[in-house]
Amino acid sequence: MAKRFFYGGQAVIEGVMMRGRRVMVTAIRCPGGEITMDVRSLASIYTSRMRNTPLLRGIIVLIEALVLGIKVLLYSANVALEEEEEEISGWMVWIIVTVSLALAVALFFMVPLFLTRLLNIDSSIVFNLVDGGIRIAIFILYLWLVALVPDIKRVFAYHGAEHKTVNAYEAGVPLEVEAVREYNTAHVRCGTSFLFAVMLIAILVFALVGLPSLWLMVLSRILLIPVIAALGYEVTYFGANHISNALVRMIIAPGLWLQALTTREPDDRQLEVALSALRKAVEIDQLDEVA
């Protein structure tokens, strides 16, 4: 029997991307009202054995989220604005990924570090607790500010549609708007929960580094990102697979609460888009199994 596959995806501009075993399906609501779908095969790195290897999979998932996320966002923007789609080159995607990652590191790791240094704290434990507290505060503030942008609110509604659809599928109900509508907009495998886990695990990892010179602390914040991402994914993965455990539910609860900032209640038309993407991804996977 084939190992159970967990579907998931990403909200984009006027649409949803769902990732299947071998393909990603992006469904977009066009300005004219019709739903268009784009199906793309996944590169081998995203489907190989490494994608299911503990610790390695967290790093690959991070790369996947950045690279594929940018590609589908650019695609959705072209479709939503009725512009001609130009295939973005691989090197350009990597430039965008590098710049995005650099900005994220600067905002969520360097700014907290330099702010905490101003407090002249001598204890490594206290320093990293304060550093982590500032990091989490910046993260929550960032999400809150982004959620105020009207266009982002619509993307967050599609995010809610994606979660409702996946929750309904995993519950085994028919993939119809009427059935899916009743499900929650939060999901245990959401990227928001993953990032929150990363913020918490960073406190523990950086505490092990201690209080070396400033340049070593800066370097550690960069070089240890893959380690933190790997551990963060394992925590999220474990939580998703042990959701029935009361202690696990208590631990993952903050990440689920935080999703109130990154999801909105979708309307039926947005649910139709998410359902279209998931149905297509499941259909392709079932055909591959038969073949």
Describe what you observe in this structure.
This protein is of the alpha+beta class and 291 residues long. The chain has one domain (8-290). Helices cover 65% and strands 8% of the residues. The protein contains ten helices and four strands, in the order ββββαααααααααα. It has helices at 56-80, 90-117, 124-146, 150-171, 177-180, 191-209, 214-223, 225-241, 246-262, 268-290, and strands at residues 8-12, 15-19, 23-29, 35-41. The protein has a four-stranded antiparallel β-sheet. A hairpin with a 3-residue loop joins strand 2 and strand 3. Helix 6 (191-209) crosses helix 8. The longest helix has 28 residues, at 90-117. The chain is globular and about 60 Å long. The two termini are 15 Å apart. The mean pLDDT is 90.
- Strand content range: 5-15%
Low-confidence stretches: none
Helical content (DSSP H or I, runs of 4+)? 55-70%
Strand order across the largest sheet: 1-2-3-4
Tell me the radius of gyration.
20 Å
Q: Tell me, rounded to a whole number, the average pLDDT.
A: 90
* SS-based class: alpha+beta
Bulk shape: globular
Total domain modules: 1
- The succession of helices and strands, N to C, reads EEEEHHHHHHHHHH
Q: How many H/I helices?
A: 10
Cα distance, first to last residue?
15 Å
The description of the largest β-sheet is: 4 strands, antiparallel
Number of strands: 4
